[in-house]
Amino acid sequence: MDWLYAALLGYLAGSIPFGLLLAKAAGKGDIRQIGSGNIGATNVMRTGSKGLAAAVLLLDLGKGLAVVLAASHWFSHAVPAAALAVVTGHCFPVWLKFKGGKGVATNAGVSFGLGWPIGVAYAVVWLGMLALTRTSSLAGMSAVVAAVIAAAVLGFERFVPVLAVIALLVIWLHRTNIGRLLKGEEPRVGSKS
């Protein structure tokens, strides 16, 4: 039953659509009608408010971290279920007809919760790739792969399977971005396109 409780905790917390809620509260309207229609921080930035996007990023990251830490306290052997569920809840929230974000920020929080060295590797690759390429999707996909590698080489082998599943999910959710990357049409952060 602990696995079920951990998964429910993760899914319900993960499905809180901070991007949608904060954008509406700030008078930016329905974020799903802007840009990519995604509820994540990258799309929130398209409203023109970097501060709002930063808040969404931190809250989405925070829910991933909070769920893993709570599961570690209450359901220690079911932490992988909570980790997968919180990212799944963010990507497929029941309240929004299962159309949510792409899981990059939430998985950053998960990575820090599973082990701070994993989180540091995630953050370094994410921010480094973003600085080098100015391409949010490429940075996010690189970070989720980095988390799997970091877990494998830094002594967190227990979490490699769940991080690998999350990485595959995040990459799959970026399939249209991958198509644009291959065509050289993926917009860069800060560009007008």
Description:
The protein has one domain. Helix content is 69%, strand content 0%. The chain has ten helices and no strands. The longest helix is centred in the first third of the chain and has 25 residues. It starts with a helix and ends in a 10-residue tail after the last helix.
Describe the structure using short key phrases.
single chain; 193 residues; mainly alpha; 0% strand; globular
Describe the structure concisely for a colleague:
This protein has 193 residues and is an all-alpha fold. It has helices at residues 2-14, 18-25, 41-45, 50-74, 79-91, 104-114, 116-133, 136-153, 160-173, 175-183.
How do the strands and helices of this protein lay out in sequence?
Blueprint: H1 2-14, H2 18-25, H3 41-45, H4 50-74, H5 79-91, H6 104-114, H7 116-133, H8 136-153, H9 160-173, H10 175-183
Helix pairs in contact: 1-4, 1-5, 2-4, 4-5, 4-6, 5-6, 5-9, 6-7, 6-8, 7-8, 8-9
